[in-house]
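During the no-cost extension, the postdoctoral fellow (Dr. R.K.) reprocessed legacy sequence entries with the updated structure-token encoder. One reprocessed record is reproduced below for audit purposes.
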Amino acid sequence: MEAQFSPASAPTEKWSPSPDASEVVKQIHAMLHPRNIVLVGATDKPGNYAERIWNNLIKYGYRGGLYPVNAKRETIWGVPCYKDFASLPDKPDHVLVLVPARFAVQVIRDAAAADARSATIVTSGFSELQDEESQRLALELKQAVQETGLAVTGPNCLGNLSAGENLFTNIDDRIVTMEAGPVAIAGQSGAIVMAIRQTLEDRGVGVGYMVTTGNEAGLTTPDLMTYFAADPSIRVIVVYLEGVRNTKAFRDACKAARSVGKPVIALKLGASEGGRAAAMAHTGALAGSIETFDAISTREGVIRVRGLDELIETTECFVHADLPKGNRLAAVSLSGGKRGLLIDALYAAGLDFAPLGPNATEQLARMLGPGSIVGNPLDAGFAAVVDPSVYMKSIKIMIDDPDTDIVIIDSELPKAPHELRERNLRIVNEMAGQAGKPVIYISAMSIGFTEHTKALRKMLPNVAVLQGLDRAVGALKSLIEYAQLRKEVPDIVSSSKPSARAILEKTLNSANGAAALDEVASKKLLRAYGIPISKEEIAQTATEAAAIARKIGFPVVAKVVSPDILHKSDIGGVALNLNSVAEVKKAFNDITARVRKLKNKPKLEGVLIAQQVKADLELVVGASLDAEMGPVVLFGTGGVDIELLKDVALAGAPIDADEARQLIAKTKAGIKLKGYRGKSALHEASAVKALVGLSNLIADAGNRIASIDVNPFLINPKLGVAVDALIVLNNAAAKKAAEH
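Re-encoded structure tokens follow.
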């Protein structure tokens, strides 16, 4: 059984990074475990940030040196006030920057020159403002941080907490329990991070570290995640993300946490403009940043929550519940109505209750007596009225049952002393500590914690106590899914051939800043990457079109080829079911005439004559460059229903064949591929090949391709082919590539 955290089991000796730890881990350790703290900009003006932080450092008993600095004061707050770093009785270690923004850059440089190791810039007035002066100061600050190598949080932040050091460089004047707990929090919004910490404390969950990162001119949230992953006192990492600025750093931090079995619970703000800007292709429109964030980060062990309440329940669950060996659920309730609510909530989340083992079933039947219904969940309400011991005996039978992986108890903690209930809770806590499986109390509604409840909660470290049925079930599902992840997932690199990469470079270099590649150029690139393409050729005349059709074989399709026409069907640029030479010639003439009448005078490069494939299913396969998370691939139901059904799934690129099959399995289209309701199985291998090829293509392109849209990708039992393709270029990158 994995060790459960409780205050008594916290490390007795302070941890310090090993000599081979990363520089960022060493930097952050110095910041959170400083020898002294220097407050630059100290003033006793009532209610100001400096005074509030000073009061917190005194109140909670920070044990290092505390030095206020203000050139205009000799004493402040009843202690000596120093004019500068040189006049301090000791070298500065951690510097709190509380001066106006225009002086902050010089303070950072002076602090580094005086051998300080870290700083927190509480001051605002930098990149969060849009005026020219603030933006200039932001650039100067970032440069100063980089040049000095100082470990810096902020600017525009509200300070930090390091409970093991009794360090609280924060303006929050609510009561804080300095308990070196198992949760670490980091995020850009000081108000939200502080609210999370306060609520966790109210629920009896200790927070060991809290860091507000503000504008992140220096240390970023992923840097903090890396440190928390290395610190053995931390069990769960909680982050608030307004954006992912460095995808690689974020993914590396997630991998570091996952490799040591620490979940990252993330609350992230909405979709990016970059995802919407890619709407020239369906793939870009469907791959918004939240969906892309989920596709990439979930693989790395991140649990994204939708709100603060869900974050609290999920954190509580991971702090106090061991990872389950499987998803076989068992539950005990004293209410038939609540039992029904529990069944409905779990069913809606895709979870269900497993049959109890034969021994457990027999024991329960014998205990409940003839005619009793032994179900899972078990409604023990009536039997417990007759014999109160039935309740605890039922819980023990389920915990002991080798055929259950998780035991749920429908109950909540008492708000006032209750001898019997508290005795039962302590017994269950002891059983859970020996069980090797999660034991979780779930209250159907949120119940406020009194001081008595908080004290009782701390006495029950081996059981999770969740509130609000839907949020509790979401937390439980996250626990199960995280347990099913491997600790380490190898990086997958592009498996493309050198010849494909050469064609990619030639195609992009000849694009000359175009917004998109035409269908012929797009398909040539797809073919190079192993993506199956329908038989087709481009025609310049009606006679040539007829000859191509005869060579391919009827029926055929005719489609306009123009880099200026992204959606051909919108202008009547597609003709289907052409079964004769005469029909092909007429289609050619009709399409070219329509194009020439268009007001924007698009460039006409010809008409594509293509094999018309008989399809049992229309798919969409695509790829997109997300503004935050980088390249992703998409698979799902295609054709005209793509926006209506939105039956799509995404994955970070590149992927291999196994991941492609997993991606397909997440969709309803994937079910149809296997053969739905007696129909033949379709050629899934071609879809797998297309996804792997597309993922390699978007990864190899770097930031030069915005999106790739293959819709429809037609599939039947014998083959699957791309019959349409659109590659939208990232204009700025495409132009730069063309210049070089």
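The chain has four domains: 22-269, 319-484, 535-612, 617-739. The longest helix spans residues 132-148. The remaining legacy entries will be reprocessed before the final report is submitted.
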